[in-house]
Design goal:
The structure is a homopentamer of 269-residue chains. With 269 residues, chain A is an alpha+beta fold. Chain A is 40% helix and 28% strand.
Chain lengths: 269, 269, 269, 269, 269
């Protein structure tokens, strides 16, 4: 019998920065129809607010392919700050020349599977009743401690790498293969195996996981940053053979882009 | 043998307010092309009808992401009143600057699984034939009583919280896992387990369930209201491990927004 | 052994009126850009042809939600008459202000499962070879008789109720659960059970089934008419627990609307 | 053991005419905005090239429903000729008033299941090694002979019937039910059963099958021609109970239209 | 027991040229609205940059069907060069008359299943621990050697054939049939069988496989080049009966086009 049977199935999870991905297509005919002077004025007027955004945790990427010409990625302290970004962008004249083709709303997340197995197991042995005041207090204390220790990972700086790869994903809930019905110890085992692959790429790829249950149409968003885009393919391909990916991962659209520092890089004709 | 075998499978269900969700994108280039005076006149002309709508049970939300800039949520006594809203909005000049990107039509619903098990069980023991006049009368009397008692939940006030999370959902009818083929007592058990998770969040999240079978493309709509949007994620993630969600829930798109009181908050440039 | 084994699997089916559903969105900005006089002239010019259509078996509904502002439903003697409607509408100036967002093409249909079981069974006992002249003649005679008897249901009047609910549906052909591989007696049994639920709603809901195999993307269209739209939900929800729906029904989009008698009700500003 | 085991699984297949289906919506507001004289000039200018196309194996249909106002169907000797059609159409002024909403690219195909079973079986008995020069020569000789005999079916005339029904389809490759893993003799048996239904409709329906593996998003296209459109429904409904359709057929969108001889029938206001 | 059990499951994979497919529709009404002189000037201005692109590894195709009028295929040394192409194209005036309808981002890839089985097997027998420095060094050395030998296949010239067929594909990860859970020796066996079919077509079809995990929405892209487009159908149909395709291949949209050397071939009116 699984020692965690009868205990909560949801792992301890820490939340950090609010994250907004925005994908845009440039309305080229309308943009080109402007005089050079007007275009310059519009780009100039956007430079300061976009520069301020970048200082506050945003970055701009030139996307490859038809899904968009540019992607903005924003890390902020909460959703209020993300909504302010949207309102600020809508007030820029350049907004009329950008068509929002997609977006993703999420929150930086650390799933503490190892801690969950340990802490639930320990409280289970000590017969602490789930959701009792004692249970809740012990969990709150543990989360508080981990939240403090992991502050830099919960509110990350924008990684400095040249390339980004973003995609959303779900855990499968099939009629036979259902992630949410696996015992926690089994999920923890699979996540650990998965993490070992990631650690071998630690020097070349920076990964930021964000949770989007309740916020967007997939359960998680994954951002990878690297200077060489080929490592995205190698990492994800290798991981696809992990049980947790092979059986339980469902993927949405993939976005690949290269960092740019100013809109003018893209919009100058 | 299940004591409810051979009895009706559909649970007693109370209906209340008609509900309409409307998601809009602002046509920014056309809006910005207007003079400041025209924009002000258009917003001013919309203020009174929108204010009256709010008093009558509507609320306005600034959406996060590309699915829309604004969402209107309307609770009304019936569908006639919802149709009047649509006709009223179409007559406003601001309507020309709003593009309806999505919507959802439903009716506030309370599924009385516990009462159904109790009442069907009792009538079954007493050999009352399903759909006989006696059966129908007893059910009508029970529903009438519950409808009176639950009036405030059937015709709810718009909750005052800052954030909203809306999503539609289905119960799975897979080839092997089929909600509609489970015995009622099993469905009742799973719904009760599910409800227990919800009750632990009662202080922080207000939930309104509406039914949309026959009205829209999913079977139910779920509205969550809270001041801290992170609790949406925590609640839904925890619930996803419940059997009724893990196995039987299929989800549509998720919409997340923050309450605004006037269109001008969004449309002022 | 099933007494119908080896006999044709397709049930006897009568066809009646050609049916066309057309869903439209109003192009509000273009419409509002017209002068009041122009709008009046356009609506006036459409009044006579639309009135004639209504007399010939058409009705107009104001739709709830973003799928469209208006739905036209046409019952006609054949597809030629439906094509004439399309050509006639395209010639109206108001056509430029209506965007066709969806449609559905079908034929009123009565699936004679009971007769099929009886007739095939009787001919089977009498060793009449399927598709022999004798077989064909007996079927033709039977169909002729039923067609005459059911003329009013095959070429129905537009029901006078205030609300309509329309949706298309398929019978499931899953890898394990496959409607088209069930023996006819089993299909007949499930359809009969299904029909019993419908009969309990006979006083409040009028149902018209049309077949669309070969004509549109789903196999059947269902039109429900009632004065109280809540009965749509109650009927369909109750039916969803029937085996034939729980296991074998797949549904497309649902459209809900309220009858209007003149376009001006919708288009007047 | 199946006598064809170890032999090639792909049936002998003859290819004939290249086929292009093009579905269009008329841009009514732009078309109506032209003067009557301009419209006449544009239609006149298109009459000769469209007339020439018709002589060369094309036909025009007025579609029912929102998927398009008109469908062009072209049979030509090869893909080069189809590309010429596209370039020719794009050069017509009327092209600006037609919006291409869909299309289908395929090649008239005859799948020779019976011959394959016979020929493979015979060569298998004679121990001819698959893909050996002897094997290839015998197949080439057989195909050559059949190609000559079936020339009229491979390069068909446009049938003269009033109505067309077009739809694309796949053979299912499910996890359990997989057409491409059935033994050839089993596929041959199912295709033959299927063909028997078709033959009973031979007098009223003309069927042209085209293959689109490698050319478009489904594996086959099916064109049915008849004077009475109801026979499309009867034929396809009856076939849906065949094992090969019930279990192994997946269908795309259905298009139904009536032959027109000149664009002016549609475009005159 | 499989001798590769416990060893890495991901095959050795070589990457070469970055690949970008771009599908466009011509904005015919806007293009035709230009004067002949303007059109000529725009086409002339595009000739030099497009000519330079062709010299650098690009080709232009006239597509059949509504998915696009033209497809550009670019092979380049890396993603930076592909991004430069996008920026260069956006600066051309002709860009305003081309609507990007789809695209595909990938990297030429050679999956070395045979080498993987041999090398992993050999190191496994010698008890070299996976991911140890010794393991990594031996693999790096092997890859380096093969990369050098296969340079022409990794950075291919644009094949000179008249026709192209492009489609993306996935390997199935079903609940029961899951490519990523097969032992490597089994995957190697199926890929080898698959390759044998391809080799029989070697003289008539040139195939270039590119990997897109992490870059686009499918796992691989397949480009086929041939002078006779019918061989695409024959090759893919025959392969569809291979176990690796029948069971494990899922396909996206298919694009078929004919090489053109200058945009003017398409755009001249």
């Amino acid at each position: 019998m699984d020692k965690l049977e009868g205990l909560p199935a949801v792992p301890l999870t820490l939340e950090g920065a609010g994250v907004l991905h925005q994908m845009f297509r440039v309305r080229w005919p309308a943009w080109r129809a402007l005089s050079a002077a007007e275009r310059e004025a519009i780009v100039d007027a956007a430079a300061a607010p976009l520069g301020a955004m970048e200082k506050a945790g945003s970055a701009m990427f030139s996307l490859l392919g038809h899904k968009g010409d540019v992607m903005l990625v924003h890390f902020r302290k909460d959703f209020d700050a993300l909504i302010e970004i949207e309102h600020c962008l809508a007030r820029l004249r350049v907004w009329d020349y950008l068509e929002l083709t997609s977006s993703y709303v999420s929150v930086v997340e650390l799933g503490l599977y190892e801690s969950s197995v340990r802490l639930y197991g320990s409280m289970g042995e000590r017969k602490v009743a789930p959701h009792s005041p004692e249970w809740d207090a012990e969990i709150a204390e543990n989360m508080q401690r981990q939240r403090a220790a992991m502050q830099p990972r919960l509110f990350p700086e924008m990684p400095p790498h040249r390339f980004i790869c973003f995609y959303p994903m779900d855990r499968r809930r099939g009629e036979e293969k259902n992630w949410y019905q696996l015992p926690m110890t089994e999920r923890q085992r699979q996540m650990q195996e998965h993490g070992e692959v990631g650690r071998r790429y630690a020097g070349t790829v920076k990964q930021i996981i964000s949770g989007s249950i309740g916020f967007d149409d997939w359960e998680w968003g994954v951002d990878l940053f690297a200077d060489d885009p080929l490592v995205f393919k190698r990492l994800i391909y290798e991981m696809r053979f992990d049980e947790v990916s092979a059986v339980y991962a469902l993927f949405g659209s993939f976005y690949i882009g290269r960092r740019i520092s100013r809109l003018a890089e893209l919009l100058s004709l």
